Automatic annotation (TrEMBL):
Domain Flavin reductase like: 1-163
InterPro entries tied to this protein: Flavin_Rdtase-like_dom, NADH-dep_flavin_reductase, Split_barrel_FMN-bd
Entries under PANTHER family matching the protein: FLAVIN REDUCTASE, FMN REDUCTASE (NADH) RUTF
Keywords: Oxidoreductase
Region (Disordered): 286-305
Coiled-coil blocks: none
Molecular function (Gene Ontology), one example: FMN binding
Superkingdom, taxonomy of origin: Eukaryota
Any single Pfam family the record assigns to this protein: Flavin_Reduct
Protein's name in the database: Flavin reductase like domain-containing protein
Length: 305
């Protein structure tokens, strides 16, 4: 199965999925695994898998309705956004609309989407297998020129995005002029790619130069390049990559990697080692300063599955 390409699919749902009005609409999306068409007759059925427990699973059960959004190769932002299960507002800065007939959120710029209703759920290991009935199909119209033929799929291959998705991600990161797309998690993913491929000694200057160039392309009063923060998170990511716990796992899946080391998603983790006063100093911004609260960690905590 490592050699079988899979389309990257985001399943979206909401508590307004029945089409009725609700006082407070909750929307969730999840980048699913193992999306599969099952049959066309006597009715079209598709399936997908969702890791449990998860907020997306809870809302899918409550709604009973969902939209299967098939991402184009230009939608790395959506892939990143919906692979973060604990993110509160997943739809922030994501183009979407609520379908007027079902109330379900539909992502824009996809290859296409399928509105579905629950038929059966099977709990298998740490995932649920959702078998759903397709009730409506919306054809995508691309994301730039508005032509369907321009859209190419975003694929998952060999247990990683490297052959397609990671290359797309890295190109988007290096070329993007929109700072809203590149969150802390995206910066960690960029560092993970370089560290795995080049090793720490070679990768470190490349990562720093990439981030410097990124901030130069996206000047902001709130954010600019910070040498100490950058060096700190390079240290954490490399610790995780080199950890014996990681070497026993699949080392090519970024999403599983982040689940094993949730500290990497914590932007406040650095304050266990550095005081705010030191991090705000110009010296810390321009050169690496050792921590003033406690030494840099030599091992990261692992989230056991």
């Amino acid at each position: 199965m490592r050699r079988v390409p899979q389309p990257v699919v985001v399943v979206t749902t909401s508590n307004g999925g029945g089409g009725g009005a609700t006082e407070s609409i909750q929307r969730r999306g999840v980048t699913v695994s193992s999306f599969t068409p099952i049959c066309l007759h006597p009715e079209p059925l598709v399936s997908f898998c969702v890791r449990i427990p998860s907020r997306a699973s809870d809302l899918l059960h409550a709604s009973g309705g969902m939209v299967v959004n098939i991402l184009s190769h230009e939608q790395m932002q959506q892939s990143v956004a919906f692979s973060s299960p604990n993110k509160a507002d997943q739809f922030k800065d994501i183009p979407f609309y609520d379908d007027p007939s079902t109330g379900l959120p539909v992502l824009m710029g996809t290859l296409g989407s399928m509105q579905c209703k629950l038929l059966k759920v099977l709990e298998l290991g740490d995932h649920e297998l959702w078998i759903t009935r397709v009730t409506k199909v919306d054809h995508g119209v691309g994301s730039k020129l508005g032509r369907r033929e321009e859209a190419q799929p975003l694929l998952y291959y060999d247990r990683m995005y490297r052959s397609v998705g990671e290359q797309v991600f890295m190109k988007e990161f290096e070329d993007s002029m929109d700072p809203r797309l590149w969150t802390h998690r995206a910066h960690v993913r960029m560092a993970w790619n370089y560290l795995k491929e080049l090793g720490k000694d070679t990768a470190t200057p490349v990562i720093k130069e990439t981030i410097r160039r990124h901030f130069e392309m996206n000047p902001s009063k709130r954010q600019s390049y910070h040498e100490t923060i950058t060096s700190f998170y390079i240290h954490l990511v490399n610790l995780a990559i080199e950890s014996p716990d990681n070497k026993l796992q699949d080392q090519d899946d970024f999403f599983e990697f982040m689940e094993r080391y949730p500290i990497l998603t914590d932007q406040n983790a650095i304050y266990k080692y550095y005081s705010p006063k030191m991090l705000k100093s110009q010296d810390a911004r321009s050169q690496f300063l050792p921590p003033d609260l406690q030494p840099l960690p030599s091992k990261l905590p692992v989230e056991k599955s």
